[in-house]
């Protein structure tokens, strides 16, 4: 069992809901965690499918103020203002996974298409240290309730991994147990830095 916290990345499409909820839970439990999105821009639910859309450089505070100025009632009702309030307490702005060069022990994605993008990005990078990183996907529907359920599941998984004697040897069996308990399929691969 390691006494050093796992270095964990949690990734969804826009670094807004699922990855930020898991970021919150994991940081409260002492994990070294960062969260990311993989999209080309940040998309939030609004009055039309293509709005509102923001650049990853836009802060959560700027998004919040923009939504309040556009339609406070709509964005209060659909939960976006509450979500952005939480997000800005955690970090200033969303981050794009493809722009991060930090090293992690574990990368957890929240949907299969994001998993594919993360694996593709990791495999396109030049391998320097050959240090392994485990990439695990658990599908989490993008809504408030499922984000919380998914964050709890990710947190429990990370705690179990943290307490294994040998992550390399024990992870497949641990994931199988989590699949059976949660009723959710997990994808897993190993990439290298």
UniProtKB/TrEMBL annotation:
- Kindly list the places in or outside the cell where this protein is found, as annotated in its UniProt entry: Nucleus
Q: What is its EC number?
A: 3.1.3.16
GO terms under cellular component: nucleus
One GO term of the biological process aspect: mRNA 3'-end processing
Recorded protein name is RNA polymerase II subunit A C-terminal domain phosphatase SSU72
Write down the species.
Panthera leo (Lion)
Indicate where this protein is primarily found: nucleus
Provide the top EC class.
Answer: hydrolase
